[in-house]
TrEMBL record:
Keyword Ribosomal protein in record: no
Purpose: May be a cell surface adhesion protein.
Organism this protein belongs to: Parasponia andersonii
Compositionally biased intervals (Polar residues): 353-362
Domain FAS1: 25-173, 186-325
InterPro entries, alphabetized: FAS1_dom_sf, FAS1_domain, Plant_FLA
Protein name: FAS1 domain containing protein
Membrane topology: Lipid-anchor; GPI-anchor
PANTHER family from the UniProt entry: FASCICLIN-LIKE ARABINOGALACTAN PROTEIN (PTHR32382), FASCICLIN-LIKE ARABINOGALACTAN PROTEIN 2 (PTHR32382:SF64)
Length: 388
């Protein structure tokens, strides 16, 4: 490479390596630890496991409240799980720096919070209204609060552009939905959640085989469930009826993993995972794979796509699938289709497991190309240009 081109190229390399190393490198606990006036807020982010959720996300805005505001909240005697819902309303799945707050298009916007993304918020009650007010002030309020903005922007605490913004607001965002009594893990019922949100047929199979007891007993320590929707189960029933009772139980347990995994965690930690059906004699595992914005679960027999979130509230996460997961221990492995044929609408329509009503990808998570991947793409382009 000519020295002149090399001299031009090296600064690009340094910048891109810096970008790759610093992308998604935030820690909300450490950020707030530098500000004692937010110590209670910081403590409860950790206690409710929201701190880990914040640190996992690529783009996030935290609306912090000081110790006085937290003291007012805690005086109401809410359970830890209700406090989690309230605080998750203060975590926005988009980036809002102080500058952006004062440059909102048309002066007002609605943005989703982690409360909305968790699936725990009824309707659109997890959306936050941000509005520019007179005198350079900015107001915050929940979407279904009749336009009442009960909190004001106070100051910026920490900003890492387009990664994390931590802003102080004047008081807790008021929301009857977030403040409603929230069941703890032992009170969550898997089959009830499934039945109410499009997976009743799968729930009925769990109950009929007794597999629901295994699911239920794993909630306390962490559980992730992948449920084929009602239409998918309906198409699969002829094959299901040919299985023995033990095989039916194993198939159903194959759709759960004994740890909590948010959508973001699944997308960032691809690879083989064990399931509730895994034992010493049989693997009963599958591979989690990210394909762009899509999340797929791959067995040696079939590839299924996650199409939505029923609930994501640690320690329980439940996601919808467009196909039944078929373990190679029970079904004959088939040659994997090419990516193009796997995504072909015709192939999906021909499958007896297909449920065309569930082909919309879940949009709850805040996922995009991270800095490392962007840096490598840009680096490749620079290399190609300079070596020409």
């Amino acid at each position: 490479m000519p020295h002149s081109k090399l001299a031009l190229f090296l600064p690009f390399v340094s910048f891109l390596l810096f970008l790759a190393s610093t992308s998604h490198a935030h820690n909300i606990t450490k950020i707030l630890a530098q500000h004692p006036e937010f110590s209670t807020f910081n403590q409860y982010l950790t206690r409710t496991h929201l701190a880990a959720d914040i640190n996992r996300r690529l783009t996030i805005t935290v609306l912090a409240i000081d110790n006085a505001a937290m003291s007012s909240l805690l005086s109401k005697g809410y359970s830890t799980y209700t406090i989690r819902n309230i605080l998750s309303l203060h975590i926005l799945v988009d980036y809002f720096g102080a500058k952006k707050l004062h440059q909102i298009s048309k002066g007002s916007t609605l943005t989703s919070s982690v409360f909305q993304a968790s699936g725990a918020a009824p309707g659109t009650s997890g959306y936050v209204n941000i509005t520019d007010l007179k005198g350079g002030k900015v107001g915050f309020g929940v979407e279904n609060n009749d336009g009442h903005l009960n909190a004001r922007f106070v100051k910026s605490i920490k900003e890492i552009p387009y990664n994390i913004s931590v802003l102080q607001i004047s008081q807790v965002l008021s929301s009857a939905e977030a403040e409603a009594p929230t069941p703890g893990p032992s009170e969550l019922n898997v089959t009830t959640i499934l039945s109410k949100q499009g997976c009743k047929s799968f729930a009925d199979l769990l109950i009929a085989t007794g597999a629901d007891a295994t699911y239920q007993s794993n909630i306390e320590s962490g559980l992730t469930v992948f449920c084929p929707t009602d239409g998918v189960i309906k198409g699969f029933l002829p094959r299901y009826k040919n299985l023995t009772a033990p095989q039916k139980t194993s198939l159903l347990l194959y759709h759960g993993i004994p740890v909590y995994q948010s959508l973001q965690m699944l997308k960032q930690n691809n690879g083989v995972v064990n399931t509730l059906a895994t034992d010493r004699a049989n693997k009963y595992d599958f591979t989690v794979q990210t394909d762009g914005e899509d999340l797929t679960l791959e067995t040696k027999v079939v590839t299924s796509k996650v199409t939505g979130t029923l609930i994501d509230q640690e320690p329980l996460a439940v996601y919808k699938l467009n196909k039944v997961l078929l373990p190679s221990e029970l079904f004959k492995p088939t040659e994997a289709p090419s990516p193009k044929s796997a995504n072909s609408p015709g192939d999906e329509a021909d499958s007896p497991q297909a449920d065309s009503s569930d082909q919309t990808a879940d949009g709850n998570g805040a996922v995009g190309i991270n800095g490392g991947r962007l840096a490598m793409i840009f680096l490749s382009l620079c290399m190609g240009t300079l070596l020409m």
